[in-house]
Design brief:
176 residues; alpha+beta; 4-stranded antiparallel sheet; 3-stranded antiparallel sheet; 5 helices
Length: 176
Amino acid sequence: NILEAAKRRKSIRIEYDKRQAWNKKGQKSRLVDPYYVVNLGGVWYLLGTAGLNDASIRQYDMSRILSAKICATSFKVPKSFDIEKILQNTFGRFIGDPNDLVEVKVRFTPKVCPLVETQSFHPREKRRKDKQGRITVSFPVTPTGVTPELRYYHVRSWILSWGPDCEVLAPAELKD
């Protein structure tokens, strides 16, 4: 139903896994305009509106959509929705809002540089190797999370996976 609704530009009523923060008390479903379906890091996501009264873009994990019913209401994808621009700002499985980007800068120790050199972490990353053999990687990400505690969550877990071989240089909020 999700793919059919996106193809036909029809709104859908979805029930989403109740662990989500937007699922307020008593709210069983939400009306969404499904703009695009994309695979990020091996997981399928629906990119669509937060609700019919909220046109901001949300990312829904398709495996957490419990049901999706196609509605009679049609919609038009706004010209401001640019999937290519959105995908340029992804980090792992998380899309980035091109209007809410912060530059993250991390430095890796020489010990892990052979691993770092064989990987690409972000479509718009920049790299610099210094005289000590350390590699600094910078890229834009969206810091927002459902709650303040979840800001930079997607980046924090990646940084922590490198242990003491990765140091955050910027932004200060993430470094703290």
